[in-house]
Amino acid sequence: MAGSSLSFNLSNLRCNLAVLFCFICSCGVVMFSEADANYLTLDYYAKTCPKASEIIHSQMESAVSSDPRVGPRLLRMHFHDCFVQGCDGSVLLDDTETFKGEKTAGPNINSLHGFDVVDKIKSHLESECPGVVSCADLLALAAKDAVILAGGPYWDVPLGRKDSRSASLEKANTDIPLPNQGLITLISKFLAKGLSTTDMVALSGSHTIGVARCTSFRDRIYGDYQYTSKDGGELLRLKKMCPEKKNDENTTNLDHTTPTLFDNAYYGNLVKGEGLLNSDQELYSSIIGFQTVKLVKKYAEDSLIFFKHYSDSMVRMGNITNPHGGEVRNNCRVMN
Ligand code: HEM
Ligand SMILES: *[C@@H]1O[C@H](CO)[C@@H](O)[C@H](O)[C@H]1NC(C)=O
Ligand SMILES: *[C@@H]1O[C@H](CO)[C@@H](O)[C@H](O)[C@H]1NC(C)=O
């Protein structure tokens, strides 16, 4: 235990040094940053499509009111977009005979939904201002609306992302964190994207809404759920809907306390040992989770601090850019 926490701290330090080093090296090019195609700004569409965020908000409002599953689905889609090549709409590209996208990657297949809603929003944007608003920005704005519509915090979304002319099935399989992974791997995957441990704990709070399939948490309920939680009733319910060898696709709420409300109850569940995914419970129960335990307790006690950290972390996650730039797709599913 001491050994692993020590090596973790060392790699953390190395990482910080690497960041500092890059920072020093990049000072020479800072003056070009305004010309950088990837530089995000709040007023990016002020002249070219002033109604963009309004259109997305009203479309999200009606989509969520007719199907509440849409909000969590689009929030997760933005996350899976940003963790592969940066927030560049790569997750939205359809497979063709000659092109392999990210939709069949392990974390996405049979799991990401709502592409039809993205198409519908995009068609409204196209009729208002053709060829202007990127699919990647659409996802960033829709994710913010999903959170607000569920009662969560508001934040201003920096804009100006470009849509990729590529996708990476391989990176979708390697870079997106998995529910059965342990704390060190989870932290490393966020660090690799320039996000901190605090970002990871705050962003995991997204699991205050939405659902997971049996296949995502079966190992946990037949494994250590019984040791972390005293709520035998909840465990029994989960085992009943997810027998050991069937019903892979049955779903249940990630936050069984307040499933559709964006609040801090997710963290209260973790303190009670009732995190649904192994990756959720790791934040509180991992033997090396000193820093994450403190954050979980703080967020469980103070929803305003959680909301503040969550909004800041969403802006940082949304700021992961694809250095190759790109285009504004006419149709989110295909390159122009
Ligand atoms: C910490 C690492 C994370 C892991 C291992 C993880 C894993 C998962 C898994 C396995 C599911 C259930 C998928 C299924 O069974 O079909 C899920 C759902 C979800 N995740 Fe995460 N996630 C993580 C972080 C995040 C982040 C950073 C966000 C957003 C910023 C997010 C947003 C969501 C949402 C909203 C759902 C519900 C989706 C729905 O209802 O359709 N997750 N996550
Ligand atoms: C789980 O899946 C089975 C088979 O598809 C279905 O009959 C059952 O109603 C589902 N249960 C829940 C709780 O979703
Ligand atoms: C976003 O990224 C740019 C460079 O890519 C950086 O200058 C800026 O500080 C970042 N903003 C946030 C909020 O992380």
From TrEMBL:
<feature type="binding site">
    <location>
        <position position="255"/>
    </location>
    <ligand>
        <name>Ca(2+) 2</name>
    </ligand>
</feature>
<dbReference type="InterPro" id="IPR000823">
    <property type="entry name" value="Peroxidase_pln"/>
</dbReference>
<comment type="similarity">
    <text>Belongs to the peroxidase family. Classical plant (class III) peroxidase subfamily.</text>
</comment>
<feature type="site" description="Transition state stabilizer">
    <location>
        <position position="76"/>
    </location>
</feature>
<keyword id="KW-0408">Iron</keyword>
<feature type="binding site">
    <location>
        <position position="102"/>
    </location>
    <ligand>
        <name>Ca(2+) 1</name>
    </ligand>
</feature>
<feature type="binding site">
    <location>
        <position position="208"/>
    </location>
    <ligand>
        <name>Ca(2+) 2</name>
    </ligand>
</feature>
<dbReference type="GO" id="GO:0009505">
    <property type="term" value="C:plant-type cell wall"/>
</dbReference>
<keyword id="KW-0376">Hydrogen peroxide</keyword>
<dbReference type="GO" id="GO:0005576">
    <property type="term" value="C:extracellular region"/>
</dbReference>
<dbReference type="InterPro" id="IPR019794">
    <property type="entry name" value="Peroxidases_AS"/>
</dbReference>
<dbReference type="Pfam" id="PF00141">
    <property type="entry name" value="peroxidase"/>
</dbReference>
<dbReference type="GO" id="GO:0006979">
    <property type="term" value="P:response to oxidative stress"/>
</dbReference>
<dbReference type="InterPro" id="IPR010255">
    <property type="entry name" value="Haem_peroxidase_sf"/>
</dbReference>
<feature type="signal peptide">
    <location>
        <begin position="1"/>
        <end position="37"/>
    </location>
</feature>
<keyword id="KW-0349">Heme</keyword>
<dbReference type="GO" id="GO:0042744">
    <property type="term" value="P:hydrogen peroxide catabolic process"/>
</dbReference>
<feature type="disulfide bond">
    <location>
        <begin position="82"/>
        <end position="87"/>
    </location>
</feature>
<dbReference type="GO" id="GO:0140825">
    <property type="term" value="F:lactoperoxidase activity"/>
</dbReference>
<keyword id="KW-1015">Disulfide bond</keyword>
<dbReference type="InterPro" id="IPR033905">
    <property type="entry name" value="Secretory_peroxidase"/>
</dbReference>
<feature type="disulfide bond">
    <location>
        <begin position="214"/>
        <end position="242"/>
    </location>
</feature>
<keyword id="KW-0106">Calcium</keyword>
<dbReference type="GO" id="GO:0020037">
    <property type="term" value="F:heme binding"/>
</dbReference>
<feature type="binding site">
    <location>
        <position position="84"/>
    </location>
    <ligand>
        <name>Ca(2+) 1</name>
    </ligand>
</feature>
<feature type="disulfide bond">
    <location>
        <begin position="135"/>
        <end position="332"/>
    </location>
</feature>
<keyword id="KW-0560">Oxidoreductase</keyword>
<dbReference type="InterPro" id="IPR002016">
    <property type="entry name" value="Haem_peroxidase"/>
</dbReference>
<feature type="domain" description="Plant heme peroxidase family profile">
    <location>
        <begin position="39"/>
        <end position="336"/>
    </location>
</feature>
<feature type="binding site">
    <location>
        <position position="263"/>
    </location>
    <ligand>
        <name>Ca(2+) 2</name>
    </ligand>
</feature>
<keyword id="KW-0479">Metal-binding</keyword>
<feature type="binding site">
    <location>
        <position position="88"/>
    </location>
    <ligand>
        <name>Ca(2+) 1</name>
    </ligand>
</feature>
<keyword id="KW-0873">Pyrrolidone carboxylic acid</keyword>
<feature type="binding site">
    <location>
        <position position="90"/>
    </location>
    <ligand>
        <name>Ca(2+) 1</name>
    </ligand>
</feature>
<keyword id="KW-0325">Glycoprotein</keyword>
<feature type="binding site">
    <location>
        <position position="81"/>
    </location>
    <ligand>
        <name>Ca(2+) 1</name>
    </ligand>
</feature>
<comment type="function">
    <text>Removal of H(2)O(2), oxidation of toxic reductants, biosynthesis and degradation of lignin, suberization, auxin catabolism, response to environmental stresses such as wounding, pathogen attack and oxidative stress.</text>
</comment>
<protein>
    <recommendedName>
        <fullName>Peroxidase</fullName>
        <ecNumber>1.11.1.7</ecNumber>
    </recommendedName>
</protein>
<feature type="binding site">
    <location>
        <position position="86"/>
    </location>
    <ligand>
        <name>Ca(2+) 1</name>
    </ligand>
</feature>
<keyword id="KW-0964">Secreted</keyword>
<feature type="binding site">
    <location>
        <position position="177"/>
    </location>
    <ligand>
        <name>substrate</name>
    </ligand>
</feature>
<keyword id="KW-0732">Signal</keyword>
